[in-house]
Each structure stands twice: as C-alpha cells, then as structure tokens.
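Risk register update: the risk of archive-format incompatibility is retired. Evidence:
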Amino acid sequence: MAMMRYNFLSEVLSLSVDVTITYPTGHCTYNSDPSAKADIVMDRREKTPYRSGMKFQTVYMLHGGSDDDTTILRNTRLEQYAQRNCVMTVSAQVKDSFYMDTRYGFRYFTFITEELPCVMQSLFASSPVREDNFVVGMAMGGNGALALYLRRPELYAACVDLSGGIGCSVDTEYLIQELSQLDIARLKNAFPPAGEIEGSVYDLEAFARRHKQAGTDMPELFMAVGENDFIRDVVRKDKDALKMLGYDFLYEEAPGCGHDWDFWDAYIQKAFDLWLPLKRVPVYPE
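Archived output:
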C-alpha cells in the first residue's frame, strides 16, 4: 500500500487543503510477467501489471467532527482493508463544516462533490466512472455521506453512513428542532437559521421525496450505528424517514457498540469486504 498527503489551494474554498490518499500498490508489478517472483522474500502473490492509463475504484472517506484527513488512517486498519480490496481511498480535511456549503462562506459541499473529484481524477489514478466511486463517512461524516447520497446520487455507486447524527437529516422537522435548541455554535453557523431550512438545499427530506417521484437511480445505501451510541436515536430518525418514503437500504445496530473507533473500524472493514460493490482489481483502459 502506498500513502501520500497532498496539499493544494482549493479554488472553491480559497484555502490550502490537506488530502490523504492511499493506493493499493501491493496488487501491482512493473514486471511484464505478473507471475514472476519478487525480490521481496515475503511477497509471493501473483500481481497485475502497471499499465499506462490504469485507474482504481475510489472510496471517499469522510472524517468526523474535530478530526482531520489523517484521523481515519491513524485509528483504523483502513490501509489493510483498501489494499486487499484493491481500492484507492481519499480523505480530505473539511474542518467542522458538516460537509455543507456553510452560512459563513466556505463551500465544502461544492468542494467535496465537484472540485475534489475533479482533482483526484485528473492528477491521480482515480476512475471517473460512477460505478467506481463510493463514499463512507462516520459521525459528522456519516451525515455528510447521507447528504451526498441524496443531493448528488449520480456521483456514487454506494454510500455508507456510520453513526451519522448531528448535521443534515432526512427528518427535516428534527433538523429544524436541532438548530433551534442545540447550543452548538459551529452547527448553527454552518446552517441557515432554522426557519429557512424547509425547501432549501439543506432539506434532505425534500430531495428524498423528489428522487422517489422521479424514479432516480439511487446508489446503494448502508447505515449502521452502535446499540449503545448516544446518537443512536437520531440515526433511527433518518432510517425511519427513509423507510417512510419507500427507500430500500441495509440498516444495522451493532450490539454492545458505542460511538467510537472500535465500532468504526469493524464497520469500515464490513463496508470494504462485504457491502461495497467492488471489482477488487485495477480498472484498465479499454
């Protein structure tokens, strides 16, 4: 597995942004004979050859509140899961923006859905095809993944929401209540006033209704939360709202688990190994 940290000046944000990228290079060889044995004693796998124009399926990892682009890699075995499933991962620093175009002016939703994939697919070996792109988020990133699922479904083949609680919700009434009652300055400054949510781009329930009426081809959706997570009942609100609207998705509550890295590590592994529709091979040009 190769890992790099890339920093660039975002046009959308007018900020320099850190992005952590991993490549599953353990699957590849420069040798034209992929069955040739490497000089590395412990490496005896048959590999696929590097080839001009080759790409990788890409999983965008959305970090949680107070975290940064390195936190997921430092607290889970993400590299191992990505390596054995032959996918590239991308994690960008978004501060505590809730992955939204914020009220205070930083357009993180636009950055994540437009500028970041453009840069990754132009400068790195990230496949631009919808079936090769996925999003996985935890905590604040879980809400972000849910927002990407409903607002930009054409970009992803599957989305995974782990412990998504504070931030955008499919239960618009709850989001309005949250903004009215919770004394969290970052939340209130990221979103418009509670009275302006309904019918706006922050109203995920409205997006969900429109997609149902239009018969939109939606990504696969997976949701999970720990049985003992303090945010569990909020996650249930999103689950119930989607069920009420007729959405089909997988939902799990993990017995004995909380809002912590033990749960997220286990479910990142499950997402990569079982849930995401991965090819598990490089994407070669036609």
